[in-house]
Amino acid sequence: MKIERTLCKVLGYLAAIAIIAFGFALCGKWTYLHSVGRIAVIEPIQGHTAHRSRSTTTYKAVFHFTTETGAKVVRTRSFPEELLPDLEAGKPVRVIYDPDKPRDFMLEREPPYWIAVIVGDFIMLLLLWRLS
């Protein structure tokens, strides 16, 4: 029983650390792109997909834009629900892309990913409180 409890604790801590590290990596990418990135306006999307799970919906679309050097970029990626009305209406939506790797981009109004860090911290605190 004690070994199972210890194993559960260790696995929980490892999962929390992985979630926190993932969150910091995403926030680092957000910060990097906002500091060195270039702006482009995406072409109107030709539809999107919505994948519903228990509590969330993930939206994906194919994004097309042209860099300031004239390179065409086409990539499928997810986007936040807040941008759905603008994308469906064909309004101009801006992206921030890495000039060295234009396929590495994010939508300008995409928020930083601190939620992953917060969730990881919450799991860690819960484990400390519950399994101590």
Number of strands: 6
> What percent of residues are in strands?
25-35%
Radius of gyration, rounded?
19 Å
* Sheet/helix structural class: alpha+beta
Uncertain spans, ≥5 residues at pLDDT below 50?
A: none
Helix content: 40-55%
* Gap from first CA to last CA: 14 Å
The rough form would be described as: elongated
Total number of helices: 3
In round numbers, the mean pLDDT is 82
SSE succession: HEEEEHEEH
Multimeric state of these chains?
single chain
Biggest β-sheet: count, sense, barrel? 3 strands, antiparallel
Biggest sheet strand line-up: 1-5-6
Q: What are the main properties of this structure?
A:
6 strands; 132 residues; three-stranded antiparallel sheet; 25% strand; alpha+beta; 43% helix; elongated
Strands, helices and their partners?
Blueprint lengths: L1 H35 L1 E4 L7 E4 L4 E10 L5 E8 L4 H5 L5 E4 L7 E3 L6 H17 L2
Antiparallel strand pairs: 1-5, 2-3, 3-4, 5-6
Helix pairs in contact: 1-3
